[in-house]
């Protein structure tokens, strides 16, 4: 039975971290809301169900048989071993999950650069605050997070170019997505800092060249970044830092 | 060998979710930075290590032998089965983790009520923005999250008064902490809404009465809420909503 991924249609968003793992593994999955005749109604039906024993708070969530699993890091923790994208060792799987949760936190901060006050309002209604938050994000948070990820790559005792262990995991795929997203949203900030993160950019390049990922990125299944997603390019929020 | 918990001294903060699980289980643990002669130096030594293969991004983190595990939800996912505070079923453990990650997201939003623009600045430097963000938090986010948690309790097919399954898990303990924290930070908002969340408040009361938790709450190990933590009481941010 194929995995069922439930996420908003029309954006990469948080669902993309899950898609990259499913695509790399060549897994059999259905991106439910993009199926003809399904749409987001199928997603809301589960979220608003009054009989489902384990309702998710928000998308993305994954259905595997009767089990509904919510949150990107949790879905990847669940899928990782099944897809051959997690460390063999149980303890190291928790280390991988810790790295993924740091990515989760970073992605939430990316979102808040354009929605610092109220996620129910438009960006235009909180533009001044977004400028202030983005400036802090570019000057402090990007170096803090990317500097950390760079160190993780450097200190990997396997010296493998991977975030953990000596083989590709879902964490590497998520790092690819983070770097891609930041380059889209903050091209000036990223261009001015690129030289500081050689290992991160090397990992980004290595992931992009993997046959299944390259095929996915060239397919219509990979949506373009846009201003409805998490990573949004508003030129007024970007600066060389 | 006792578990070692690394977290900021002087606040409940995110570390408290881990402490509650360790205390309920009567586990042997050391709250490292509160040990005489240790302090936060012991924590930074690990975070800034250039040889440690798995460096954490931020506290809290847990050391169990050679393994260092970061992020609250990850620590609880790891400890849950060992402490008898997780479902037996592997799939349900992922459902529990999904609930805990929704709590994580909510706690991050609580933090941003007093730091909506820049976490490196003082609250006083972003007070106007904090008022706007808190108003949105009280009117939209508290009802959205607490309404969801209330539904989870109501729809638990075991009708057990627990967030998942028919026995206490770490998720229940975290819900206690969230309700306590919100009552401290936003007493007017919570008083005006209490009647809407009978199952949540009943769970809060049930957790507070558990012998190990009651003993912990009365001990000096339980710090008081204060304005350095996640849940801060700034009267100007609170309203009946």
UniProtKB/TrEMBL annotation, chains A, B:
Q: Name one GO molecular function term.
A: glutathione transferase activity
Q: Which Pfam families match?
A: GST_C_3
UniProt keyword list: Transferase
Domain (GST C-terminal): give its ranges: 93-237
In terms of superkingdom, the source organism counts as Bacteria
For biological process, the GO terms are: glutathione metabolic process
The GST N-terminal domain covers 1-87
InterPro entries of this UniProt entry? Answer: Glutathione-S-Trfase_C-like, Glutathione-S-Trfase_C_sf, Glutathione_S-Trfase_N, GST_C, GST_superfamily, Thioredoxin-like_sf
Protein name listed in UniProt = Glutathione S-transferase
The species is Rhizobium chutanense
């Amino acid at each position: 039975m194929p995995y069922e991924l439930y996420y908003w249609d029309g954006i990469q968003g948080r669902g993309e971290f899950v898609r990259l793992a499913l695509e790399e593994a060549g897994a059999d999955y259905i991106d439910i809301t993009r199926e003809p005749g399904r749409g987001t109604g199928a997603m809301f039906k589960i979220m608003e169900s009054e009989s489902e024993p384990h309702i998710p708070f928000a998308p993305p969530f994954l259905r595997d048989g009767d089990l509904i699993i919510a949150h990107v890091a949790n879905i990847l923790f669940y899928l990782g071993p099944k897809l051959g994208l997690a460390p063999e060792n149980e303890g190291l799987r928790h280390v991988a999950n810790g790295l993924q949760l740091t990515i989760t936190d970073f992605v939430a901060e990316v979102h808040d650069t354009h929605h610092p006050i109220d996620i129910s309002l438009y960006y235009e209604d909180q533009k001044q605050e977004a400028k202030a938050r983005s400036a802090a994000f570019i000057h402090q948070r990007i170096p803090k997070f990317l500097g950390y990820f760079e160190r993780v790559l450097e200190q990997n005792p396997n010296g493998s170019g991977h975030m953990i262990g000596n083989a590709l995991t879902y964490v590497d795929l998520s790092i690819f997505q983070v770097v891609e997203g930041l380059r889209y949203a903050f091209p000036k900030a990223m261009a001015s800092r690129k030289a500081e993160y050689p290992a991160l950019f090397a990992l980004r390049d290595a992931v992009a060249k993997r046959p299944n990922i390259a095929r996915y990125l060239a397919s219509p299944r990979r949506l373009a970044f846009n201003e409805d997603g998490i990573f949004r390019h508003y030129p007024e929020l970007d600066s060389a830092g």
